[in-house]
Amino acid sequence: MLSGPHGAADRPLFRLPFTSLAVLTVLLPLSGLLACLVLSLMYHYEDATYTHCHVSNYLPSISAAISRVPERYVWRCCVGLHSAPRYLLSAAYFAFYRARFSARLPELLLSALALLCSLAENTGLMLLTYVASTESYSVHKNAFIVFIASSLLHMLVTCRLWQVIRRHYVNPEEIMSFRWKLRLFLFNVSCCLIAGYFFRRHNEYCETGVYTLFAFFEYLVVFSNMAFHMTAFWDFGSKEVMVATPPEDKRY
């Protein structure tokens, strides 16, 4: 249940500021990914940086970094723990947009699209996490495509919705949120294009270090995606996540 700072009629069992939830939701996959990268470089360097054409590579791709033990279990644990708050965040944003755009059909339709993209993004992430590239490459690859495509579309639709919000509201935090969303979206798109360029170049020419550049920009894609979701810190700053029991007269 999402509530304002001064609660509801129900008796609260647990309260958590939404800002704390937003930070925790981002820190889980961030810390998990960093841990996997460090572990793969320290203990599985040769395997993690291996390329099909046997040229020198100095950084593992994310898929390679999360596909071995114990990295696989670290990543799965962190993503699994963060997934429930992410689904909650999707529902919270949809309720937020419905309240803002109750009389605007185009924005309501975009809100529904944003919800579907957010759910697909999180589900794609879960699937590529729990099906490693070494277990089923085709499933992992398709899940990655779903994750990236839905992530980019979600960012685009969200920026459009917040552009409309900025026109009609003057809350400084909402203006700040929109500006960072737009910056992070453009940065994310740029990194996706550059990563795609280096990936294709590596497969066509097998040049030394090109796959390393792909891996580096792949990291930036994921980090900017996390930062984009972190803007919920401004969007729900006055809200709380609350677990509550109904009062006696509501029980049946």
The stretches of 5 or more residues where confidence is low (pLDDT under 50) are: none
Termini separation: 20 Å
Report on the biggest sheet: 3 strands, antiparallel
Report helical residue fraction. over 70%
Structure classification: mainly alpha
Number of strand elements: 3
DSSP summary: helix tally: 9
Oligomerization status of the protein chains: single chain
Which helices and strands, and how do they pair?
Elements: E1 2-3, E2 11-17, H1 18-43, H2 45-48, H3 62-65, H4 71-100, H5 105-130, H6 137-168, H7 172-205, H8 210-230, H9 232-235, E3 240-245
Helix pairs in contact: 1-4, 1-8, 4-5, 5-6, 6-7, 7-8
Question: What can you tell me about this protein's structure?
Answer:
This protein has 252 residues and is mostly helical. Helix content is 72%, strand content 6%. Strands 1-3-2 form a 3-stranded antiparallel beta sheet. Helix 1 packs antiparallel against helix 8 and helix 7 (172-205) runs antiparallel to helix 8 (210-230). The longest helix has 34 residues, at 172-205. It is globular, with a radius of gyration of 20 Å. The two termini are 20 Å apart.
